[in-house]
Write a structure and sequence with these properties.
Elements lengths: L2 H15 L1 H12 L4 E6 L4 E6 L4 H10 L12 E5 L5 H9 L4 E5 L3 H10 L5 E4 L3 E2 L4 E4 L11 E3 L8 E2 L1 E2 H5 L6 E4 L4 H7 L9 E4 L4 H10 L4 E5 L2 E5 L2
Parallel strand pairs: 3-4, 3-11, 4-5, 6-10, 11-12
Antiparallel strand pairs: 1-2, 7-8, 7-9, 12-14, 13-14
């Protein structure tokens, strides 16, 4: 990465997190610290990112590009499906301190990062993955980047197998003000059986295939549709 890019990033980040914090990040990044810890002056919180991962790009999407600048009216429940390192959950928890956040992530390493980033906030971390039924899952591509893990159905005795979180059971009749989904193709499974949809007001979903987009748009026919960053944003009229 050339010097001009680093200088431009310091300038860009400093407007949001403060010049000292931007410099601190860049120094730790250059030193290749495994875990980079810096303060986000705009929200008054410490942020933790892994050097050799996609965490920096995720931070850019969430806190620099405002991917989740979604207008919600005093939400009570937000579900972060595919929480990765916890930056979306952090964003939601700071912006909506009265809301209950449920961060769902199948990777143990990612869950450890989520716990670092949301410490002391109203966020429940679940090591699992969202599915449309009670079943057993496993990560199909455990060697992939942290943001790219895909889950598939598995047998109980498969290595790394874990119980899925059935979205209908998770909601248990509760209303969900925002369902954020970045689940690497798992949206196909969810929207094939969308009985849970009546309990959700707004969805921000990253689409990973034409099949997924068709299923999502058909399930949410009549909803207001727009784009926020890489996510399709659907809001019940």
């Amino acid at each position: 990465m050339d010097l001009s890019y680093k200088v431009a990033r310091i300038q860009r980040w400093s407007r949001r997190i403060g010049i000292f914090n931007a410099l601190s990040f860049e120094l730790q990044q250059s030193l290749k610290r495994p875990i980079i810890a810096f303060r986000h002056g705009g929200i008054g919180r410490w942020v933790y990112l892994r050097h050799s991962s996609s965490d920096v790009s995720v931070f850019e999407h969430v806190f620099m590009e405002d991917e989740f600048d979604i207008q919600l009216d005093d939400p009570e429940l937000i579900i972060d499906g595919g929480a990765n390192c916890g930056l979306a959950s952090l964003y939601f928890a700071v912006r909506y301190p009265r809301a209950k956040i449920i961060a769902i992530e199948p990777s143990s390493a990612n869950c450890e990062m989520v716990q670092r980033n949301i410490e002391g906030l109203n966020v429940e971390v679940c090591k699992s993955a969202l599915w449309s039924s009670n079943t057993i899952l496993k990560i199909e591509n455990s060697a992939a980047e942290p943001w790219a893990f895909r889950c598939i159905e598995a047998e109980v005795d498969d290595l790394g197998a874990f119980p899925a979180l059935d979205l209908t059971s998770l909601l248990a009749g509760r209303s969900c003000d925002l369902l954020k989904l970045d689940i690497e193709g798992g949206e196909v499974e969810l929207f094939r059986n969308s009985s849970w949809l009546s309990h959700v007001s707004t969805i921000a979903v990253e689409i990973h295939s034409e099949e997924a987009e068709t299923l999502v748009r058909e399930a949410c026919a009549g909803w207001k549709v727009s784009q926020t960053g890489e996510k399709l944003l659907l809001a019940r009229e």
